[in-house]
Amino acid sequence: MQNGLLLQDRDLGTSQLESASSSARAGLLLSQQIASDMYSLLLVLVTITITVGITLFALNLTAGEKNLKYNIRTSYGVKDPQFLHVMGQLLGPPLVAGNRIVGLLNGDQIFPAMLTAVHKAQRTICFETYIYWSGQIGQEFADAFCARARAGVRVHVLLDWLGSGRIDTAILDAMKAAGVEVERYRPLRWYSLARMNHRTHRKLLVVDGEIGFTGGVGIADEWLGNAQSPQQWRDSHFRLEGPAVAQMQAAFMDNWMKTKSTVLHESEYFPQLKPAGESWAQVFKSSSREGSESARLMYLFSIASAEQSLRLANAYFVPDNLAIDALLAARRRGVDVQIIVPGKHTDEPLVRRASRGRWGRLLEAGVQVFEFQPTMYHCKVMVVDGVWTSVGSTNFDSRSFRLNDEANLNVFDREFAAREIRNFADDQDRSKQVTLAEWQRRPVREKAAEFLAGLFRSQL
User: How many other CB atoms are found less than 10 A from the CB of residue 324?
Assistant: First the structure.
C-alpha cells in the first residue's frame, strides 16, 4: 500500500514536472513570439521613419513645381519699351513712374537712414527680414520699434524663424511687451516639415506706407561700419519714395497674411502716393509657393535683353547651366560681362567653392570675374546697358531662384544706373581679377573640394 502511494507520488511529481516543463516551453515560445513581433514592429517603425525622412528631405530640395529648362531669347534690348512692358507682365506689378531711389553704402549710411525713418513713423511700420541677430544694431532697432509702438504707431515685425535663430528671447519679449506685433516666419512644426527649407529672404522696411527700404543688409553687427575691415561687411541698400512703395508694401503683406492670417489694407498702409522723383520702378516678389520663379526669370530675361554691358555684383554667385548658357549667349552678342563676388573673406566657404568650380566656361568666353578683397562682399546689384538696374535680396543661385521668398526693386533710370556703375567700379578697384590661366592652375585638392561643393549647389 505504501509502495502504491510512493508510485502515485512519483507519477504525480513526474506529471507536475512535465506540466512545468510544458509551461516553460510555452512561455519561452511566447517570449520568442513577442520578441519577434517587437522586432517586426521596430523594423516597420524604422522603415516608416526613414521613408518619411527621405520624403521630407526630397520635398525640401525642390520647389514642388516645374522649372525653366530652356534659354530665353529676345529680339529687343532693355531700352526698348517692349522690354518694360513684358517685364511688368511677367513679374507681376507694372513699372510705375515718379519714384525717387537713393543708394546707401554700408552700415554707416544704411542703418542711420533706416532708423531715422522708423523714429519719424507716425502711423505704421512694416518690417521683414531674414537675418536679425542680437547685438548693438539689433538692440537699436528693437528699441526704435518699441518706442514707436508705445507712441501708438502700429508696428509689424516678421522674422524668418531660421535666420533669426541668434536673437535673444529678451529682445522679442521686450518688443511684444511694448505692443510690437512680432511673428516668426515658418517656425519648426511637425505639419510644416516638408517646407522648412523654404525661407523668407526678403529684406523690407516700409514706414507709413510712404517710404521703403530694401537691399542686402540684415540686422546684425557684421554690417556696421564702412567695410573698412574684415569685420565690417560691404553691402548696399536703397531708400524708395513714390508709387512703387505700394508694391513694396504688398510684398510685405504677402508673407504677413500667410503668417498672421490677417489683411492690413487701411490707408495707413496703402495711402495715395504722389510722384517723388523721375525713376520708373517696380517691386516684384518671388516665392517657391507660387512656382513662378520670378527672381530667376527676371535675371534670365534681363541677361537675354542685354546688348552692351552687364554688371553683376552678388554675394552668392552659383550659376546653374541655364544661367551659364545665358551669360555665354550674351558674350556671343558682344556684351561686356563683369562680375564681382566675395574673395577670401566669406561667411559661406562652401558657396565660394561651388561658385569657383563653375567659372571655367565663363572665363573662356571672356567674362571678367573679380573677387572682393577687403571684407565679405554681400551686395546684390545688377546693371544692364547702363539703364536697367535690379537691387534687393535675390542672390544669383538656386536657393534664391527656386526655394526662398525674395523681393527686388527694379529701376529704369540712366542716372541711377550710372551711380551704381560708379559704385561697381569702386569695388572693382578693391578686387582681384581671376584670369583663366590662374583658374586653370588651381591645385588638384582645390578642384576636388569645388567638385564636392558643387554637388550641393541646388541648396546653396
Answer: 17
